[in-house]
């Protein structure tokens, strides 16, 4: 079984969504879960964690994005914030696998799931869910998953990591608010997983092909140079990275 | 009191959202409410209806929009579907007040609230909430609100209206799916409220100014010709129509 199931954290996201339906929730409210009983990964797959050993939380971000077309700036700000926090812990070979997976030494150690809600009355809000494998040691059958603890061979304080991520997030979200997005994009591209490396991909028709990741554009699309030297844009539904 | 409080229907939308968090919900699922006890208008205002006299329902639309930039096509398809159903009932002077209010004879008779959810894992779905004043007769203090029943001086069968709207919606959503959006945009522009008429507006700083609505662009922004003949784009948060 080759699917990485640690992708993203839905249940703290769901909690925040339900709260938002019922009452006023302040901007930058954080929901953190000591134990996730209902975590789901991408594609609805079950996600089992060793209780209490992973860091899972959601942050509400309101009215940051006033333009639908700017949605991916938030993804970049969040992914970069996580990577910066992990660099601080001296985790090596950190990378962001497009669009939002956190990698270290070629293994997946975290995932981000951002849910943007855009109403026709102009209200825009985003729920940012972040999941990081901190102190887990066992990843049965998940050969491509790892944790900070495995990589560094020590236990970590989840609350300290949370605080550092939130600090970075505050700073990077300010950059987006001030339309100074260049620095976070530069960082994002500098740690983009498998950039400039020939890689196999698979399209929605199940066809495999080779390509080289060039970069990610402002809309969040992956630009891949194909064998005929042309560069094609793909959104997340259109392509699978085979690695 | 001059605020129109019949804008949009949140509670069937909320019901659908909660359902989606809990279980698989089929595309084009419809939630219709005979009585809305928790309906909210725009800006969180309370919305009181005469029990059972309004048509309020929500429709789930999944994976229609594969590009974030195409979000407004759905708004257009929905607004046009409602207008077409009302033309069928021979309601006169129908118009769509940008972005999504349904007008007849200069009064508001319905509202649409679309909530688009876009996840970083590529999932896009929209919850389309539609509210129509069908058989209400009383709109205390709401001088700019009316109902189909008042306009036509007869009672209507809500279920028949619902069926007609859904039929139109099916057809118009097919157009969007087939990327043949020209016809619905043409219709939308042909019934755009106050198009080509000098009108007062107010910006976010409370400044009033005169302008003439030109059209709505593909991103859903309102293009207004100003007194200096320049044309400026506004999103829904940036402008208020004073009428």
Short characterization:
Two copies of one chain form a homodimer. Chain A is an alpha+beta fold and 243 residues long.
State the CATH superfamily name of the largest domain in chain A.
Answer: Bira Bifunctional Protein, Domain 2
Q: Which regions of chain A are unreliable across 5 or more consecutive residues at pLDDT < 50?
A: 1-7, 38-47
Number of helices of chain A: 5
Content of β-strand of chain A: 25-35%
CATH topology of the largest domain in chain A: BirA Bifunctional Protein, domain 2
Q: Helices and strands of chain A, in N-to-C order?
A: HEEHEEEEHHHEEEEE
Q: State the share of residues found in helices of chain A, binned by percent.
A: 25-40%
Q: Characterize the biggest β-sheet of chain A.
A: 6 strands, antiparallel
Rg on CA atoms of chain A, Å: 18 Å
Mean pLDDT of chain A: 86
Instruction: Please give the number of β-strands of chain A.
Output: 11
| Count of discrete domains of chain A | 2
Question: What is the CATH C-level name of the largest domain in chain A?
Answer: Alpha Beta
Gap between N and C termini of chain A, in Å?
A: 14 Å
The CATH architecture term of the largest domain in chain A is 2-Layer Sandwich
Please identify the structural class of chain A as seen in this structure: alpha+beta
Q: Which pair of protein chains has the largest interface, and what are the residue counts?
A: A-B, 31 and 31 residues
Strand order of the largest sheet of chain A: 1-2-6-5-4-3
Shape of chain A: globular
Q: What oligomeric arrangement do these chains adopt? A: homodimer
Question: Overview of this structure, please?
Answer:
Two copies of one chain form a homodimer. The first copy, chain A, is of the alpha+beta class and 243 residues long. Chain A folds into two domains: 180 residues, BirA Bifunctional Protein, domain 2 (2-Layer Sandwich); 44 residues, SH3 type barrels (Roll). Chain A is built from five helices and eleven strands, in the order αββαββββαααβββββ. Chain A has a six-stranded antiparallel β-sheet with strand order 1-2-6-5-4-3, with helices on both faces. A five-stranded antiparallel β-sheet of chain A has the order 10-9-8-7-11, with no helix packed on it. Chain A is globular. The N terminus of chain A is likely disordered. Chains A and B meet through α1 and β5 of A and α1 and β5 of B. β5 of chain A pairs antiparallel with β5 of chain B, so a sheet runs across the interface. Chains A, B: One of its GO terms (cellular component) is cytoplasm. Chains A, B: It comes from Flavobacterium macacae. Chains A, B: Its EC number is 6.3.4.15. Chains A, B: InterPro entries: aa-tRNA-synth_II/BPL/LPL, Biotin_CoA_COase_ligase, BPL_LPL_catalytic. Chains A, B: One of its GO terms (molecular function) is biotin--[biotin carboxyl-carrier protein] ligase activity.
